[in-house]
Amino acid sequence: MVSKIDQDHQRFRQIVRGRIRKDLRKFLSRDELIAREGKRFVSIPVHDIDIPTFRYGDNTGGVGMGEGEEGQAPGGGKDSGGDQEGQHILEVDVSLDELADILAEELELPRIEPKGAANVQTVKNRFTGIREAGPSALRHFKRSYREALKRQIAMGEYDPDDPVIIPIKEDMRYRSYEEVRKPVSNAAIVYMMDVSGSMGAEQKELVRLVAFWIDTWLRRNYEGIESRYIVHDVRALEVDRKAFFSLREDGGTRISSAFKCCKDLLEAHYDPSAWNTYLFHFSDGDNSSEADNRECVNLLQDALVPRSNMVGYCQVASAYGSGNFINVLREAFPDGAADAHGPRLISSKVNTKDDIMDALRAFFTPGR
Question: What single string gives the DSSP state of each residue in 79-98?
Fold first, then answer.
């Protein structure tokens, strides 16, 4: 039977999910959401949910009644408090899995069907019962003391006025377990970003938000995720997450340098038969030359697209760039390098935060 408090809690969670879905486009663009990210939960501010309050009747006399009009501060001061209700904002902890599910429901995203799932297995220990022998690390203290209590009562040794229970070897009980082999799908996400002079703070903030939601959705679909980060101007190098979102350099742009670095990284660490690989490149689309555009297309065709579940290109707006690279990709891959499961190379423009939802829908609707 579900208790009343459990019913109320379930109803409250349904209300919260409804509020998040209603304002999902706004939630996707919240900068502070990423700042509050923990290991499993984020705190989301939810408006328009009434907080229970005490309501009092009108005072008709008694203590506290004095001269002056209702609502007037003592002494008639100018800095008296207001008499209007404030807007209450309630912060609710929501798991990243639940957030990903809400995102999937609203965008109608299909669950991803990982490739190579049967090739990677993890062994987990599942506790299935109690036994009389085992290592001390698996000793079940509660069951051991229960057996000792039963023995002492049966032998007439238990004194309720002096309840001392001393287990002996025969009383000890241990958890028993069995090994469970579970197929697991690992995924590697490689984020690449143009950090040339035209990629300013606003562009990086868009990249950070898109990457956060990409990461949230993919982690909902995979047991294990490894994220790698590459930055480039005319040359590319791998960096950590913090540097990826904060590094800014001047100079030109050679996108092929990032693709070459990514190719080397995949060949060194990620066997395509065992890893599901997702590549995402972020740029304002202003590449150095037509020759480098052709080099990028060749790298994608020969090395990156064939070994990846998906390659996503996200172009952010820049006041300084021509933004032509997205057109180069769409001309070179008119069908998105499609196979039987749909397009494998997907491009999207994110000019403002309002475009984040559309980009996520474009990237993950194929369900790759």
Answer: TPPP-SPPPPEEEEEEEHHH
Distances (CA, A) of 40 to 207, 224, 276: 22, 14, 22
How many helices and strands (H and E) does the chain possess? 11, 10
Asked if the model's pLDDT at residue 33 lies above 50, the reply is yes
| Euclidean distance between CA atoms 245 and 102, whole angstroms | 26
Do 174 and 130 meet the contact criterion of CB atoms below 8 Å apart? yes
Measured CA to CA, the distance from residue 131 to residue 191 in angstroms comes to: 49
170-229 pLDDT, tens digit per residue, is: 999 998 876 655 545 688 999 999 998 878 888 888 898 998 889 888 888 887 789 999
Longest dimension (CA), the chain: 93
- 77 pLDDT band, cuts 50/70/90, is low
Residue 360's SS3 state is helix
Query: Looking at the chain, which runs of residues are DSSP E strands?
Result: 41-47, 89-95, 121-131, 174-183, 186-194, 224-232, 236-239, 275-283, 310-316, 345-350
pLDDT tens digits, 124-150: 666 778 888 888 888 888 889 889 999
Instruction: Choose among 96, 46, 30: nearest CA to 354.
Output: 30
pLDDT, one tens digit per residue, over 281-301 is: 999 999 989 999 999 999 999
Nearest to 154 by CA among 130, 139, 170: 170
Q: Which residue, chain included where needed, has tokens 């287990």?
A: 167
Nearest CA to 351 out of 160, 158, 207, 177 is that of: 207
Burial of 77 (0-12, 13-18, 19+ CB in 10 A): exposed
What phi and psi values does residue 35 have, to the nearest 5 degrees?
Answer: -65, -30
Report the DSSP beta bridge partners of residue 47: 89
Q: Which residue has 């690279």 as its token pair?
A: 325
